[in-house]
Design goal:
alpha/beta, Serine Threonine Protein Phosphatase 5, Tetratricopeptide repeat, Rossmann fold, six-stranded parallel sheet, four-stranded parallel sheet, 11% strand, globular
């Protein structure tokens, strides 16, 4: 009779007990039923921890099927098709709507996937977003958004989309502010609307809604200007701070961690605070609040001219010493942050800029940060990358002040360059703020090169290259005339 080595088994059992929590955390994501196993008993499947492939042992144990999400794909998938070998189990990933991220029907249209088109306010709101961003169907988008609001009064996307459509046309902009007030006064919207300070200690939704500024003059109170969106939206909306300052005692602006110092240079801005700092400050209890979209709709007819943001002199001088040369200096930015699920529609691949490399007398500088920063440079385009040396938006402003022209897609640096009143060329596809990109109306220094989403980039880049060649020749002639004089 063979004697059992209890010490050896106890050691192995202890090791298995130490590893059980790791395995539990690893497999709980993929197979919740796995947690029903009792690891405290040696007869409850502990052998699964000492085998080379724990998944195979688990399948032998109570016929459990653990989805092999971390398994490397087989190279002979084609030969084993239909045999269940090398195929990831589980349902196929459900397509998501690019506008609201709801699951959609992969067979029918995206909008029908939200449910029945005639009964789904979300579906009509997403259809309106598609029509509005295409740039050619603003009237159709207006009807879609109104239909979405009629079906679902609490659909915030339908309300904000309708407001953007009203702002897009000169004859309907006066209705935008009234629509914004109507949205905030709607009980259905108030239950779902995100408010400043939400999530902070002592937040009271009803009290915060009563503090909403409605356009009146309040000379004895402060107003918190809550800027929505990303940095580009901040640079666009803070423009109206001087007009707001005329109607209140003090203007407090919300900002991110990297653009606070730059927003503080705008006239009319007294203080820059984080959202939670304003909400939790006892001294701010009596202040009112408003959003960037609301003051944009309220003061659209009195838009202050740029520049309204200013780079610090030390940053400008620092980059002037680094960016030396007699050629035309052109800054590039081809991709914005993915703040929205359909923000990638604005981006341009870096390879599309290869045509510009054939223009003589031009030096290209990349101001790209974040996603797209490491995209490979196409052949023929000599690109000096500055992204690693741009630590905040003040550094970006210093570089833009030293550029002869800045060429960019719809993103934060584009709005900053135009706010600094620097020569700016915009590569515009989608129409997120369609009326902003009408030349000479909102940004006087902005020149727009426009294309539809479905159109390729090559014809547009040919147009940009021709305009850049003319600008480079003028720059060369001006330098030559200066040297002769």
């Amino acid at each position: 009779m063979r004697m059992r080595n209890y010490a050896h088994e106890h050691a192995r059992y202890s090791i298995r007990l130490d590893r059980r929590e790791t395995l539990r955390a690893r497999l709980s994501v993929f197979e919740p039923d796995f947690l029903a196993l009792d690891f405290a008993r040696p007869s409850a499947g502990l052998q699964t921890l000492e085998t080379k492939d724990s998944r195979s042992a688990l399948r032998r144990r109570k016929n459990l099927r653990v989805k092999p999400h971390w398994r490397r794909p087989r190279h002979n998938r084609q030969r084993n098709r239909g045999r269940g070998v090398g195929q990831v189990r589980g349902p196929d990933p459900t397509p998501l709507c690019p506008y609201c991220q709801h699951p959609v029907d992969p067979v029918n249209d995206c909008w029908i996937g939200h449910g029945q088109m005639a009964h789904s306010g979300c579906a009509w709101a997403c259809r309106g977003a598609a029509a509005y961003t295409s740039g050619d169907y603003v009237e159709e988008a207006t009807r879609y958004f109104k239909k979405a609001i009629a079906l679902d009064p609490a659909n915030v996307g339908g309300h904000t989309g309708l407001i953007d459509c009203l702002l897009a046309r000169q004859e309907t902009r006066a209705q935008a502010f009234a629509q914004l007030q109507k949205m905030h006064e709607s009980p259905a919207v108030q239950r779902t609307l995100h408010l400043p300070g939400e999530g902070c200690d002592g937040f009271d939704r009803d009290a915060m809604l009563k503090r909403l500024w409605k356009g009146e003059s309040v000379p004895d109170k402060s107003i918190f200007l809550w800027l929505g969106g990303a940095a580009g939206d901040h640079f666009l909306q803070v423009r109206y701070a001087p007009l707001l300052r005329e109607r209140c005692q003090r203007v407090i602006v919300s900002a991110g961690f990297d653009d606070a110092a730059l927003l503080a240079t705008c006239p009319g801005v007294d203080t820059v605070l984080q959202e939670y700092e304003w909400a939790e400050d006892p001294a701010m209890v009596g202040s009112l609040w408003t959003t960037g979209r609301m003051i944009l709709a309220h003061f659209y007819a009195q838009t202050p001219p740029p520049p309204y943001l200013f780079a610090r002199s030390e940053h400008v001088e620092k980059w002037r010493k680094r960016l030396v040369g007699g050629n035309l200096k052109v800054g590039l930015c081809w991709q914005g942050g993915q703040v929205t699920s359909f923000g990638s529609l604005r981006d341009c691949p870096l390879n599309a800029f290869a045509r510009l490399g054939q223009v003589p007398g031009v030096d290209f500088y990349s101001l790209q940060k974040g996603e797209g920063m490491d995209d490979p440079t196409p052949d023929g385009l000599k690109l000096q990358r500055l992204g690693d040396h741009l630590y905040d938006w003040e550094d970006t402003a210093g570089v833009l002040e030293n550029m002869d022209v800045f060429l960019s897609t719809d993103c934060g640096p584009l709005h900053l360059s135009a706010a600094l009143d620097r020569p700016t060329w915009g590569l515009i596809t989608t129409q997120f703020w369609s009326w902003v990109y009408q030349e000479g109306e909102f940004y006087p220094s902005l020149r727009v090169f426009r294309k539809k989403i479905s159109e390729p980039w090559e014809p547009l880049m040919e147009e940009v290259a021709a305009a850049l060649r003319v600008l480079a020749e003028r720059h060369h002639n001006s330098l030559l005339a200066y040297e002769i004089a």
